[in-house]
Specification:
It contains 20 helices and no strands. Helix 11 packs antiparallel against helix 12 and helix 15 runs antiparallel to helix 16. By secondary structure, the chain is mainly α. The longest helix has 25 residues. It is globular and about 70 Å long. Keywords: Repeat, Transit peptide. It holds the Pfam family PPR_1. This is Pentatricopeptide repeat-containing protein. InterPro entries: PPR_At4g14850-like_plant (IPR046960), PPR_rpt (IPR002885), TPR-like_helical_dom_sf (IPR011990).
Length: 345
């Protein structure tokens, strides 16, 4: 960053106004606030729309608080392009309520600008539907979806995922059937939606249809979504088949997949299978990994093993403070039941 500042000083001393190389240097250094100040330092000859979009992209990726002011300035200078709106909607989908209100106003600006008249930009359409969907404004998301003259898989998936997450399974099923093309994101949204809403048998059925009939290869999210459903319906054989697939594809490197597999084996009664996966996670183990394995030992009466693992966790870090509240009553109950059974013999 110091090198970029020295370059800026040299350009100022020479009276040069070449912003592009300097802005790119500053963005590469990661100083977004300095980059925004550079943009503002050219009031008489404002930078081009592509340069503004470079800055908007960096701010949106970082969820930076300067995103909205820079967007507003670009609007005043009439520099907004379809990409500008795409970046704003994408960032606002996971931001604060104030930026959500701003994005709703930006939608109005988008309509007035004419950039959205034909709906020809699939990235912009998908970002707008996703923005409304992730902010639980499903009626608005559906309205935008219905007004699009052309809909690609990304737009369908944005609305489908929102329906599934929101528990609107009937609406998700109807939209899923209407889709001209289904990809792994579409199938995963349905599997995850069924599993999260307690329809475990349907989740397993949909997964098998995707895998065996649809010819679609599951990804990490698909696998981590179907394994809890396998545990709920006791489909351990399918769980083992999924594990073999995940190992073959290297998906067990994903901690969510590994944790879901530990939980699946534990709930299906295979402590040996759960322990094997738990050991394979190694140093990547998080609180969920330890929770699942300790609970597996405890609920299957292996209270000694549960206590040993619990005390191992105590020496690691502050995670144990959370475990104390969650597991100490369970472990004590397991110990009490074991002791009671022993005393009656």
């Amino acid at each position: 960053m110091e090198e970029a500042k020295r370059l800026h000083a040299r350009l100022l001393r020479r009276g040069e106004r070449r912003l592009q190389p300097l802005l790119l240097r500053v963005l590469a250094a990661g100083d977004l606030r300095y980059a925004a100040l550079l943009i503002e330092s050219f009031p008489s000859s404002p930078p081009s729309a592509p340069l503004h979009n470079r800055l908007l992209h960096a701010l949106a990726s970082a969820r930076h608080q300067l995103l909205l002011p820079v967007f507003s300035r670009a609007h005043r200078l009439r520099l907004l392009a379809p990409l500008s709106f795409t970046l704003l909607f994408s960032a606002s989908a996971a931001a604060s309520s104030s930026s959500t209100r701003f994005a709703v106003c930006a939608h109005a600006l988008l309509i007035r600008s004419g950039h959205f008249a034909s709906g020809g930009d699939p990235f912009l359409a998908s970002a707008l539907v996703s923005f409304y969907a992730k902010n639980r404004l499903l009626a608005e998301a559906r309205r935008v979806f219905d007004e699009l003259p052309r809909r690609d898989a990304a737009v369908y998936n944005a609305l489908l995922s929102a329906y599934a997450r929101g528990g609107l399974i009937d609406a998700a099923e109807k939209l899923f059937e209407e889709m001209p093309e289904k990809n792994v994101v579409s199938w995963t949204a349905m599997v995850s939606g069924y599993a999260q809403n307690g329809r475990h048998e349907k989740a397993v059925e949909t997964f098998l249809e995707m895998w065996e009939k649809g010819g679609v290869r599951p990804n990490e999210l698909t696998v981590s979504s179907v394994l809890p459903a396998c545990a709920a319906v006791g489909a351990m054989e399918l769980g083992r088949k999924v594990e073999r697939y995940a190992r073959g594809k290297g998906l067990l490197k994903n901690l969510y997949v590994a944790n879901a597999l530990v939980e699946m084996y534990a709930k299906c009664g295979s402590i040996r299978g759960a322990w094997k996966v738990f050991q394979g996670i190694g140093q990547q183990r998080d609180l969920c990994s330890w929770n699942s394995m300790i609970m597996a030992f405890a609920v299957h009466g292996l209270w000694r093993e549960a206590l040993v693992l619990f005390h191992k966790l105590r020496g690691l870090n502050q995670m144990v403070l959370h475990c104390l509240e969650s597991f100490w009553p369970v472990l004590m109950e397991a110990w009490w039941m074991k002791a009671s059974c022993s005393s009656t013999r």
